[in-house]
Design brief:
mainly alpha, 162 residues
Length: 162
């Protein structure tokens, strides 16, 4: 695969197409606006730096999701990681009231479940697609989805009780 030239207007178009989706994914994982913005910015910087060639729009989207997910994980591993987003703030980025509620619930889950649940329920990815994007075996994705759903159910039950 050769590198393709990326013009500034191409990058702007890509940001318009994928920026909001990547930001919401990073917000769910990181629970911090500034960190999410940093990861999205780093993702597009890597896009400019590497100038990868894609077979399709879906391949390009998957590459960006993987880079953003890996960047979010790296940021979470840092010693000074901060979790400071208010739950009201996430509503600014959701498209519907239901999506706001789902995003709020996802933010409360452990990190290993957030990504697969977000990609499946918000972005509509199938298990096989998530396996390729995240570099996980399909069974590992299935297990993460199952455990994440169970945690989510438990979390929602506890919320109803209190």
């Amino acid at each position: 695969m050769g590198k393709q030239a990326t013009r500034p207007d191409d990058l702007s178009e890509k940001y318009d197409l994928y920026g909001n989706m990547l930001f919401k994914l990073c917000m769910v994982i990181l629970c911090n606006r500034e960190d999410a913005e940093d990861v999205v910015q780093d993702t597009f910087a890597k896009y400019l730096q590497k100038r990868p060639e894609f077979h399709s729009e879906e391949h390009e989207k998957a590459w960006l999701i993987r880079v953003a997910t890996n960047g979010s994980r790296d940021k979470r591993r840092r010693f000074f990681f901060r979790k400071t987003v208010s739950l009201e703030e996430i509503g600014e980025y959701a498209e519907t009231t239901e999506q706001t509620e789902v995003l709020e619930q996802l933010m409360e889950l452990p990190p290993n479940y957030k990504t697969v649940l977000y990609l499946h329920y918000i972005e509509g990815y199938k298990i096989r697609e998530m396996s390729g994007i995240l570099g996980m075996k399909e069974n590992a994705v299935k297990v993460a989805l199952y455990r994440g759903r169970e945690k989510l159910k438990l979390q929602m039950r506890e919320e109803l009780i209190s």
